[in-house]
Sequence to fold (510 residues):
Amino acid sequence: MLNVPSQAFPAPGSQQRVASQGRSKVPLKQGRSLMDWIRLTRSGKDLTGLKGRLIDVTEEELKTHNKKDDCWICIRGLVYNVSPYMEYHPGGEDELMRAAGADGTDLFNEVHRWVNYESMLKECLVGRMAVKPAALKGMRPKSQVTDTLPREGPSSPSYDWFQTESSVTIVIYTKQKNINLDSVIVDLQDDSLRAEVVIKDQSYLIHIELSHEVQENISVRVIENVGKVDIVLQKRENIPWKCLGQPLEKHDSFIPKKDTGLYYRKCQLISKEYVTHDTRLFCLMLPPSTHLQVPVGHHVYLMLSVTGAEIVKPYTPVSESLLSDFKEPVFPPNKYIYFLIKIYPDGLFTPELDRLQIGDFVSVSSPEGNFKLSKLQEVEDLFLLAAGTGFTPMVNILKYSLTSVSSLRKVKLMFFNKTEDDIIWRCQLEKLAFKDKRFDIEFVLSTPSSEWNGKRGHVSPALLSEFLERSLENSRVFLCICGPTPFTDEGIRLLHDLNFSTDEIHGFTA
Ligand code: FAD
Ligand code: NAP
Fold:
């Protein structure tokens, strides 16, 4: 990943070894960390060899730059000379070389589409591809965009709009059932409206520069059984509109979600609460002109500028509290996102986040993730294994299953930490277990004090076989596991040894 700090990072066995499925990282040389890269890009050194000129690159020319010491790669229509970056790339030189002299957009999207390469590689920008529509994925200038991009088949979504004296309603016909408010993401920035409806692995996009000004509060309604989405805008002036507006990039297109690019909006820090000695509960407020709900088990990316470079890291929203069914939320729901975030004093991102003042802004991406809520349907026994902040995806899974899965008999959480002081929301977990007899919690500590009477050690066959006791012999079971990557990998291996099938396990990885 472009912006994971390095110097043999993550060190072998490091708990921070966050690798995406099947990807490994390579040890990097001394002096080749992300901070070293940022320093190099700030040094004023000519990293493209073009002395600051930007050129139009033909496909033929691109192909000739295919060697380690002369390596150009095209990402989403822009061409970068990545040779100076080779030694700093945590995925290794060989991974970059897979796209040498070619269009690496698909490879990039596959591996880390969330990485802000525009910021990381801006000093390596050679220019853009000389016009060749197929290569200009997502980079078409506004003037070239029509609202008739090819879409797939008669079941593709479509849209229409109507107005009253004071409002404009955009209606999206998804032609799919099971669309809910989580599937719809709407942002209004200045006069440009971007709406995305996520339908399985595809996204339907509406992207328009509105013809007239509207008020910043928008509302979204979904009629689930017919898959219809209404986006209601309030006019600033009560005058009739002749047209909705001008189409912008990818307007009215139905494309694979991975090709949409990650969209960020600025959210304001509203509160920060100390949860443990190193973990805080951050509350961010979405702009009034945004509709965004993060599905259970999904995460977002937070982006901050660190010494001038935009750094992005993934975080999993949680609810404000495990017990919020029993208390009034402090803020109205849906406009606020909460995160439990551990601050690593020597980390790259979290100290910056911790330094933010109330009222400061952080950019928050649209949700990502592959957890399927349908896996919880009809489950009878749910087992959750979490280590450290790997607890975060469990929060909403736990709340959802206790409130919405009627078949549920038992939920058990085994929570691994180093010491008692590291346990996030211990008191809330104990209260919840007391209030709801279906829920049980077991804490396991790897470096407990001498007073600790509970379980100790690491995830192991002995701990698991005792913990994974079903409520009925053949109950429908589901297991979730999240924590440092080696913990998750080892846990999944042990669960397979205990005869749980791949279908019954969800491992949260990067
Ligand atoms: P980093 O700079 O990544 O450093 C972290 C630690 O690694 C530090 O102790 C640092 O000293 C050490 N380190 C750095 N470089 C090296 C090196 N060369 N060798 C050895 N060690 C090194 N975290 C949360 O707190 N809450 C969440 O909700 C959450 N959700 C996540 C969701 C997903 C999908 C994923 C993949 C991760 C999630 N994380 C979450 C982790 C988060 O993304 C960051 O990895 C974490 O916050 C650390 O970021 P950082 O930049 O501050 O630290
Ligand atoms: P931590 O406090 O360092 O560790 C928590 C517990 O896990 C400790 O008991 C630790 O034991 C144990 N552990 C560490 N490595 C292990 C291994 N190889 N095998 C077995 N047990 C191991 O954890 P943290 O700092 O909070 O880190 C949480 C991790 O979860 C981060 O890597 C983060 O990226 C990840 N995370 C992922 C997601 C996701 O959705 N993918 C979401 C949230 C968090 P020791 O005392 O021996 O270290």
